């Protein structure tokens, strides 16, 4: 049993991590912290956990994080970068579910996140935790930057095309739709049921923080500079709790490729990517609560625009599940351990 | 008071027409027909209408349609084309809310709708009922083809760009999201609450019937042949009852235009198109139950991709409301008569 | 045109009042106030009102309330009682949509609302604004206490039985279900979509503030002391935006009454109470956005328990609509003026 | 590994059974049948199962049911009673999830289900599968009648009070609320998203088939004749997929009992009944996908009406999960085997 800590346990991501880790046969959560809820039973906030765990939220500064084998940060952006150096120095491995270590460029980070980076020297030390790209590096990583939810869905959709240089990198569009849980458990008017139910809207069209993260990943896959990738990224808020659906578009620069076969081959060994049969339309409910990403590739009317549809659960493959997948890789467990959950449907 | 008939009144479109016409000061609904529900009170199916109307569904073949000034068809595709010629011959004006008269080309109609057209000679006689394009023609029309819901949202979003030849017609993408009412009131497993709630998916990516209708309209606006317009059209099903959100993309072929001003000018005299301020994100709930189309135009990061967001209520501006707007134009009423409804929010 | 003011316009009740009054032919809203949003356009918070009004929120202390013919308070409990005496002194008539003047007994008020009452001398001066009970008194009232949402639904369901002394007053149960908008527009975790969607729960079983209000009304109808009424009141939160469904139970103390006829006769002249046919099940959607209360009375298996089902829109008949109905009565307008809205369905 | 068959696998109950059994370490589903979908992959209907199972629906008359150790019937009412006698004769044990064997009285069955019972001789042979009541009998049972969803929630709420003779059996009320999945996967207009979302209504107030089942169970617990139990049962349809909330009322016939302690003691050894702390309000989401029933007992204002709140997942503890619990008991497995699933929240 490995000793695991969770910093920032009141949000949906932290709670989802806890749910997954409580069912994981090789992980023992020894502490989960919260400044606002310290001393309170986790099951009071998350009634599904009543009877499953008697954990209470620890004060962050009293939590036995240094005694952990691995610590997850499920904190707001900007928190982990202040505490991670200390933990690393004590030999604790870290997975950060926030954005602190996702971008390589400290200036870009400062620009998109509105504050200077606290430890830019770690940006190249951190490994971007998309196992389908960086599995080998993750094994030895001391610090893993867990990808954002949209970046996971969009990169998995576009990587096969870009790796094989099949699309015009100046033509990319990612039209993404997220359930409301992506906005977190904060008390905001904008995510009340009365404001989001029976409603659909775009947001952040002028520029969303996940854009540079996606572009960085796509540029790396295409072995080009980030300036060579032009991605239009439009996120939307959908009246449901969980799920991301990415609809990605690109102009094919090469004709005649069997895209279905290409995608199937690309992901043939991936335990958590399901390339669906030709003509499929993946549904977000089919992955709810599961760590799967389901993908379908289309070439409508055989024209030169390729459409890739991908779905994930934003809190699982888009956050906590992928973090556990990374933990499994880092700690040498089978990659699917504790993650073989089937979506509950309907 | 004009005498109005509704053929096919059990579906959501027919019921919405009835709701609007019951509140219209110059229209009297003299008959609403249904084969399946003949004799039954409309208010039994639509409990909101209890106390508002005592109309019962008439047998189609007994309904006094010939005595009407204007008849709406809210029937499945393929029904109106069989009955309309007879009504026109009796001097009754017709608005068809189905697709029977939307395409000019009978072969194209047959291909997309899977049956030969019954009266191809009427295809050029019918006027496509998008008032923002064809207001003058609608005034004198005997037969109006009311546009589809997606085509309304997408055309209103793209027309200003195309009229002014600002976008590459080969680069168009319409990523559209619809509430479930767009699928009608039929008893289908696919539209059960348990199959659609907490779920998001695309459908019809290989080709949707609204595609040729949109392309026809865009080509006409751009004064080009339909072959010169390449539109990728991907509709999605959203877990809500009403509303369409179209997210439209195009490559600008001309730089430097003030798109905000262009859109505002283009629609400055339109009573039912609201161009929102720069940086806006229109919400479907803001038009629920209303005949408005709200539009916002964006140029993310000042690059050469333009993003136009438009929202309508699929059953109002996307169907029954636009039909009443057309009726107002045809019968010489003020265009907004009976249509000045504010969306109920939250 | 009467000059109308709204104090506290950012909440759902204030916004609903504004929506109704903007469509009212005899009312002109001259001011709507908000401390938090002063200076901001109302349509920014309520995008459905864009193009309908250009009102901005006024600072409460600068608003021309004294120049109004009638002022509505849509403020949190405890606010109106501090400002109403001054307005009354200036001859302004007031309708309070909060609970400040609903209870006659200042001690009871203090007990349930956790603070002493600021002007107990007004408690008997205020008229309880349930038109179906107090229409005559409302006509001349200077201060009307608009009923709570649950109290409206429950009283309208039970009054006919109690007036005719048909039920055991010690046996009453009101099992009520409300949409989430009843909890207001405050930024609370408990009313986030992610906390309330796909969920159903009771709350406040130990005692809800609407209980004494209902008991007071029922006791008055039965001409008994409030101690003689024992009502068990259990509210529940339902995953929808609008609507209250009250399921009320009582033991019949007299056998053989035709309850259907009794209810129909009792409400025969009421414009906003619809007694449905025997065996009906009223639906909340049938009154969404409308001021109607629909009621059905059942006597299952002909036993001695009567079940009365009633539905209202909590923001209309349960708040703003009833307030406008009261305004109409106070100002001598036809009672239905501006309130003849049909629910939008689906 | 035991060989398991499922008859009637296209409905939500059958699919939920399959989901649970696929994760069960001692069960192997050897056949799942469907007349309508024979030959089709189960994962086409239930996309969550894609990659988890390659089972296809078998023709009912070709399925190897006789080779099974145990067969579940997840068929419409009236189907199992025709096939069960044959299977029992071949030594196959059966759990029927429909209502065929729930009532002991064939006349009562015929009256409520509208057809004569096909094998009334089995009604006393069948064991009513509520483990919290009949665990011992279930162990040896050849035929188990799995309880209905409402009967499970209501009986678990009321049994402690009735066993201890604390309530007036003539005063019982069960006001129950169910998600839409309780109505099944049939193609009905009444369960479309557009008809049920943003809506709340009662149904079947005049008499619902689960009423005699509940009364039978309560009478047995109270050791009285069914005529001595008067239960008013009012079910409601709630706009969500899964979950039942029962709000049960009774007049206490004995004062002074510590009800909290009574409930805790009554269920202290039950693995799937969670008596919550005093003043709790159980939420349906806390048991979604899980086999738990969570219960809270209240005595509002210390008066003589007791209120018991209970929640279950209608498809799990209300159907498939309870069936697996019964299977575990019958086959000698640990009762919780394969059922230790935590609800996914949010």
UniProtKB/TrEMBL annotation, chains A, B, C, D:
GO terms for biological process: L-arginine biosynthetic process. GO terms for cellular component: cytoplasm. The active site is at residue 149. It is found in: Cytoplasm. Its EC number is 1.2.1.38. Residues 3-141 form the Semialdehyde dehydrogenase NAD-binding domain. Keywords: Amino-acid biosynthesis, Arginine biosynthesis, Cytoplasm, NADP, Oxidoreductase. SMART domains: Semialdhyde_dh (SM00859). InterPro entries: AGPR, AGPR_AS, AGPR_dimerisation_dom, AGPR_type-1, NAD(P)-bd_dom_sf, Semialdehyde_DH_NAD-bd. It catalyses: N-acetyl-L-glutamate 5-semialdehyde + phosphate + NADP(+) = N-acetyl-L-glutamyl 5-phosphate + NADPH + H(+). Transmembrane segments: none annotated. CDD domains: AGPR_1_C, AGPR_1_N. Belongs to the NAGSA dehydrogenase family. Type 1 subfamily. Catalyzes the NADPH-dependent reduction of N-acetyl-5-glutamyl phosphate to yield N-acetyl-L-glutamate 5-semialdehyde. This is N-acetyl-gamma-glutamyl-phosphate reductase.
